[in-house]
Design goal:
342 residues; eight-stranded mixed sheet
Length: 342
Amino acid sequence: QIHRFSSVLHRVEHCTRRSAGTAMQQFQAPRWLPGGHAQTIWPALFAAAGAPAPMRRERWSTPDGDFVDVDFADAAAPDAPLLVLFHGLEGSSRSHYARAFAQRAAQLGWHYAVPHFRGCSGELNLAPRAYHAGDHEEIGWLLQRLRARSRAPLRAVGVSLGGNALLRWAEEAGATASVTVRALAAVCAPLDLAAGGHAIGSGFNRQVYTRMFLRTMVPKALAKWRQHPGLFDRERLLAARTLYEFDDVFVAPLHGFAGTRDYWARASSKPQLPRIRVPALVLNPINDPFVPAASLPTAREAGACVTLWQPAHGGHVGFPLGRFPGHVHQMPQAVCAWLAAR
């Protein structure tokens, strides 16, 4: 027990050794992609992210009688590090950023795993729940199972919603998080969910991004209602035109929150960042349309174990680079290098 405590203490002390400036902190998108919207939309649709990696799928039974699907890309060396990626809202192992991280993991000779949040693997889950931005209990259960089967330390990345959920897990786990993961990174996480929710619910964001998300989320919710009749107010859901309204009728009540305000307040990772006791990288571009720059934490708000990268460019999980049509490889390379150095 003394040895284990000393190991944990050493890792906590290691958190204070902040990394020096990197190319990612000075990241600049190509001139032909100006502005946060272009740097968000183009990479997701057209930029080179690598072909979908050949992955094998495992279905895991959950403690509440449901299932989650986890996609794996295995490395040649059994004892190679394992990189775990938690995807964003309505994402999957086929999302452009997931493919880019898969390519980088293969280049490094790392194992790679993408657990799918419930309902995101292509099949409706069974339980009367889905997933949410503060789902730290689900994150913890998944990481524990992955750690138990890995011969080497885990390194975890969370993107957007998955990044906030991963940070919430680290905050709740405290010093014990370092027993499970060596280091973690959150990319474009909406650390202040209220600020992000209001941003995506107005103006251009509402017309484009909100409609895009609701186009898949509403049918899934209706399928869940047919699976569990009376689970929520179906008419209110059909009338929802913003994520605030969707969260208020579906996400919040299904996961134990009093409403959207309660959900956004309790699930936000920003207020509790100083509780993190494992090396954590938090990467947020200033021009992210989903995450207002004014809502981003300062170094004083982040705590000793959190390293902040806040470049001027990047959009929301875009980070395009190179000549037309561009690629999205620099961000995974920089994030993986930071994780490997811990």
